Amino acid sequence: MNRVEARTAAMLLLDGYKAANDGDLMQTFPTRPMSLHPPAAFVESINTGDVTYTGAVVMPNWQILIRFVRGLVARGDVVEANDALIDGFWQYVIDNKHAAGGATLTLPVESNDDDGWVPEWMPADTALPYYSTTFLLSTEGQFSAL
Questions:
Q1: Phi and psi dihedrals of 108, rounded to 5?
Q2: What is the rounded average pLDDT for all residues in the chain?
């Protein structure tokens, strides 16, 4: 698996969850979006975790960080809806762990709330503090020739 395939797997999971749970996510993006209209999710980063070398093959374990943006700051209804969204996506990933292909597992590792997150790449006059959660996926199992 390479970076392109890792991003594709993340988008398959995000778009699949969006389609299966109408209204839980309004927008999904493969990278940081130009504008946000929550509830939204995007791939924030893809990093190499551990790399395993076995004989003539190499196996990178990609770490895919997804950011879910639920709404403005931590209102009670936003927090409750976000908790349901994250719990639902967690289970969806487990149920669809082979999104990257039959020989690769894509599994949830952790999720962390980030209340008051402000997207630093947006103009200061339009950047608002959002209630968001980061969600880390890890891939493992696909071998490539050296």
A1: -75, 145
A2: 86
Structure tokens at 73: 């700051």
User: pTM to 2 decimals?
Assistant: 0.88
Burial class (CB in 10 A: 0-12, 13-18, 19+), 93: buried
Sort 67 into a burial class: Cβ within 10 Å, 0-12 / 13-18 / 19+.
Answer: buried
**Sole residue written with tokens 């209630």:** 131
CA 59 to chain centre: 21
**Which pLDDT tens digit goes with each residue over 94-107?**
999 988 777 778 89
CATH number of 3-145: 3.30.70
Domain extents in the chain: 3-145
Structure confidence at residue 67 as a pLDDT band (50, 70, 90): very high
DSSP string, the chain: --HHHHHHHHHHHHHHHHHHSBTTBSEEESS--SS--SSEEEEEEEEEEEEEEETTEEEEEEEEEEEEEEEETT-HHHHHHHHHHHHHHHHHHHHTTTTT-TT-EEEEEEEEEEEEE--TTS-TTT---EEEEEEEEEEE---EE-
Provide the token pair at 125.
């006059």
